Amino acid sequence: MIKSFVDKKLTFRDMDPDVSLKAAADMSSAEIIETVSASSLRGRGGAGFPTGAKWKFCSRAEGDQKYVVCNADEGEPGTFKDRVILTRFPHLVFAGMSIAARAVGATRGLLYLRGEYTYLREGLMAALQKRRDDGLLGDEIMGVDGFEFDIEIRMGSGAYVCGEETALIESLEGHRGEPRNRPPFTADTGMNAMPSVVNNVETFAWAAAIMEKGPEWFRVVGTDQSTGFKLFSVSGDIDRPGVYELPLGITVQELLAAVGGENAKAAVIGGASGRVVSQAEFNRKVCYEDVPTGGAVIVFGPGRDMLDVAENFLEFMCEESCGQCTPCRLGNTKLLECVRMLQEGTCSAAYLREIVELGESIHLASKCGLGQSSGNIFLSIVENFREEIMGRALGAVEPATLRS
Ligand SMILES: Cc1cc2nc3c(=O)[nH]c(=O)nc-3n(C[C@H](O)[C@H](O)[C@H](O)COP(=O)(O)O)c2cc1C
Predict the structure, then answer these.
(1) Binning pLDDT at 50, 70 and 90, where does residue 9 land?
(2) Per-residue confidence at 1, pLDDT binned at 50, 70, 90?
(3) Which of 138, 226, 317, 325 is most solvent-facing, going by the fewest CB within 10 Å?
(4) Ligand 1 geometric centre to CA of 71 (Å)
């Protein structure tokens, strides 16, 4: 169930994907990019890169074949909104991909579907076939000369790192799913070394909505730098878990009130690569300029042991590190080891301080976003629950020296 914050009516339900696509079919590439840029839509997959700018880079890149890739890997712990969008609004997503294709000049689209979502494949294939039958995919889409685009579905195999766009492309090309060095960037050198756009499922759905309703409609909600609504997957110690449509810029407090989590001790915003927000920070805003998120919110009630939380996320990172770079492969095992020592009462305060420094080094030295954010949960727990954590360490350490 999706619950809308403002008027109990989900925005996507009111959209007509055919109207969106028709609007784009009647526009030039530059006009589409201008419309999406004017909305200030930022990518809903986590990093929040401006969608219009991404499309513009790709439209200007040279290449015989361009690709539009939909990132439906949805491997972030606590995220389940893309699954709901793909189940209920596949045509909006496919219209968004087609609009992107017209904007950048791509003729091929790929939807990279999370391995665990295999059960969605048949329905998505049927939706694609219907679009072909209705002249919404294929040659001369909506009768527009030169508007040619089709979409295939490719399956992932459940690796978290394959949600990272360059690892995703490696996987799509049939290689081991490991991130690439950047530059070159995907807009220039993506799928099969050709210019490509990779966007999140929700980003494509919003892009389609913006084409129908216009950029001003989208900008009315949110903050200056984080416009529009966002879907949040909210789980944990709350009364009403589910997928919520909420305005960006909402405070953590307001979000918790909407989901029945007022008594929370902490919330992990942004999944395993996000951060822990404690009660003292519940007035912070969920948006790209304050606490960013791809949509995952996991709430922890008063009875939760934050070391258990750190252990759980670090176990995940150790399991999911692709192993390509040393800081991530080995560093996270050291962080996990430290958490276990704290749990057993064998970690000194001095060692904890060293491990916190190691966590910061992993952030600086890792090759991709997975490693760069892998220590976030641990570090933010140490920072926000200093007393709870220090109470488990042997010996004393000046709090100010624990984390700069
Ligand atoms: C480890 C890791 C996992 C990621 N997983 C996803 C994912 O499941 N879905 C997604 O859309 N983006 C994911 N991303 C972000 C993508 O690399 C990329 O930024 C995103 O697909 C771009 O789309 P957007 O601009 O529409 O957000 C992940 C990034 C990292 C580092």
Answers:
(1) low
(2) very low
(3) 138
(4) 7
